[in-house]
Design brief:
The structure is a homodimer.
Chain A lengths: L3 E5 L3 H4 L2 H7 L2 E5 L22 H9 L9 E4 L6 H9 L8 H8 L1 H11 L6 E3 L3 H11 L6 E5 L9 E4 L6 H8 L5 E5 L3 E11 L5 E3 L3 E6 L2 E7 L6 H17 L4 E10 L8 E8 L9 H4 L4 H9 L13 E8 L10 H7 L4 E4 L9 E9 L2 H15 L7
Parallel strand pairs in A: 1-2, 1-3
Antiparallel strand pairs in A: 4-7, 5-6, 5-7, 8-9, 8-10, 8-12, 10-11, 11-14, 12-13, 14-16, 15-16
Helix pairs in contact in A: 3-4, 5-6, 12-13
């Protein structure tokens, strides 16, 4: 039998691991939420189960007489309880990223504490046990518009669990939930950023690290809508700080697999050089790295598989001067494949990636990548293709 | 539901269609020879059946209450009887390439007759109904070494069904087989070629054609061992003849899908320009096009799916100055994945493609692709990686 990688989560991130797994001859076994999930449609060995069930996850990694034991367990999301991970490790199957690393992607309070200890630039932040603490934080860090960002420490993604507030009453129900066992809260200053950046890297258990170029990410309503690789016009000083922060996090937290570090680029004061502060972490392939499928020698999905298997990492070099990835968030079409003719007919170089998901408003349904020498052209083409997949009429 | 492409054949060619199908949101349904074939390991909807069974192929394309009807039927090999194709067309499912085109990839006599009529450069050839005909062909076209090439019109692949002979007795059993309903025979002059070339293109039902650069192919014992894209030092005059021949075949035979035209490059006489003669055709993704996965904007596998669905074709431009694909033919390893660490550790840019097949001597088990600016370096790296996967010790 061949190498077996077990993956928790049946979304598009697990789906996009399949080409790399197929090429490397790695057998993927994916725990899916149901038979019609994005990954379940294209993965042969895709048992249905719950990430919170130790029995389901143990069954995933241990296999049986017909299905070989997994060489490693990894994830496409962070929502796996620590006790489930502990049970897998106790059964002798490596968990990568390990539970100690993963805690930092699961709990923003743990992450902020550790990053601060590591000297990684963070926004001003504080744990918020009650309304009085938030009032104090608002008073200290409210900034010119009197706003701060409140986050649930756990359970958030794609803008969920994040709220920009002016008064503690705006998160009253989060306080109520926290009081009865819901996620704890933290507050962060609302960073006056120039733009958003992301650093994506992969790290093996041996410590080898491979870093893709720093990218610019564009968010719409808290959801990634576009990624430009590399980040245009990035100051070399800022780039160094960004890369150093990501590297320090990877090593400091003993991350294995792909790590995505989302950052705010901030202007320098008094004409001095700018800098970054770290916003969020993810320890898995990430939307900010989808451009690597078409735009880099080694994609984030292949690199994640290599990293969690402790195989030497691939070359993360870009394959074009510019790569732009545009997300398809929602669509007015009945099915996205109906737009394929128009998309690929308008642009022979557009690389289309559909996730096989049912269409819902704002949902991540796919993305388009375009590579080329002229950034304005590449960006316009990626946006136009994504717009056509959203069902919007062709525009100039 | 989404677009559905039905494919006959469960080998590595169907396997390598899966990344493109996944990206485009196309559902693949593949008729496989058994559950452990190369494609069956990675295709969710992979019924077991026989390409020669009209019932099995009709079941593949028509589906049932649970499985939607296919939008088109295509193939990863040519071994499907005409009556099976006719039954599929009668059921209203398009067959691409169509049976009339596919005949030319199934029967070398039909191919030679039609190509000769189209004015495509061919070697001297003749149908060989009996030993006397072969004796006459040997006398006329035996060349300096007195040899000619005898082929079975049907059923050959990878050097099988092809024999270089000096006397008609050397194919005595083929005559005997032909006399009792076995494949007819033809003879061709043994072309004194400089090297072998291949032209790969895709053509839609609408007539749109996209052509990849002419490549050089290297054979070992009748099996492709290496492909260099583009063909180094190709004379512009020869290139034009090669591209024109392939284009004329595609249009003249009304090919839909990917067409591979294998050619011999021949020297000019008296210092004049060289030329090509056509050796073989394949109407499906082909070993000479595996380099396109990593080396071209659009791979042959994606292009084949687009062409048979009559979607606009993708950009076939190369993504690097040089791409070399080296086949892994047989291996002394117990499993190829055991060599992954050594291969990717030695070369972070080597693109490894394993087919998930049981190891047998000489069998096509995978390939490695390397892209770069320096041909000698790229070729050496591709060969070294393939050698490691064959289980050979590292060499300088």
């Amino acid at each position: 039998m061949t190498l077996v990688v077990a993956v928790v989560g049946g979304g598009q991130l697990a789906r996009m691991m399949t080409p790399a797994a197929t090429a490397l001859g790695i057998h993927l076994r994916v725990l899916v939420e149901g038979p019609a999930t994005s990954a379940a449609r294209v993965v042969v060995d895709a048992p249905v189960g719950a990430p919170r069930s130790a029995a389901d996850v143990l069954d995933l990694v241990l296999g049986d007489a017909e299905r070989p034991r997994a060489d490693v367990l990894t994830f496409e999301h962070e929502h796996i309880p620590a006790e489930v991970l502990a049970a897998v490790e106790a059964a002798g199957v490596p968990v990568r990223p390990g539970p100690d690393a993963l805690r930092h992607a699961q709990d923003k309070l743990v992450m902020r504490e550790h990053l601060t200890a590591l000297g990684v630039p963070c926004p001003a932040w504080a744990p918020i046990p009650d309304a009085a603490a938030l009032d104090a934080f608002l008073a200290a860090h409210g900034g010119p518009d009197g706003q701060v960002v409140v986050k649930t420490a756990r359970g958030g993604y794609d803008g969920k669990g994040v709220r920009v507030v002016r008064e503690s009453s705006e998160v009253a129900e989060w306080f109520a939930a926290a009081a009865v066992g819901g996620p704890a809260l933290l507050a962060e200053e609302k960073v006056p950023f120039v733009r958003e950046l992301a650093v994506l890297l992969a790290r093996r258990p041996s410590g080898e690290v491979a870093v893709w170029p720093v990218v610019e990410t564009v968010q719409a309503d808290g959801v990634c809508s576009e990624v430009v690789a590399p980040a245009p016009g990035l100051d070399a000083h800022v780039e160094r700080i960004a890369l150093d922060a990501a590297r320090r996090i990877a090593d400091g937290l003993d991350v294995t697999g792909v790590l995505a570090v989302e950052m705010f680029e901030v202007a320098g004061t008094g004409g001095g050089p700018g800098s970054v502060v770290v916003n969020e972490l993810a320890m898995r392939p990430h939307n900010s790295g989808h451009w690597t499928i078409d735009g880099a020698v080694t994609s984030q999905f292949e690199q994640h598989l290599r990293a969690v298997l402790d195989l030497p990492l691939g070359d993360p070099s870009p394959r074009a001067a510019w790569t732009v990835m545009s997300n398809v968030l929602g669509s007015s079409l009945d099915r996205l494949t109906d737009a394929l003719h128009a998309v690929v007919g308008a642009d022979a170089g557009a690389r289309v990636h559909l996730y096989g998901k049912d269409i819902r408003p704002g949902r991540k349904l796919g993305h388009v990548t375009v590579c080329g020498d002229d950034l304005a052209d590449v960006r316009a083409r990626a946006r136009a293709a994504a717009a056509t997949l959203r069902g919007e009429p062709a525009h100039g």
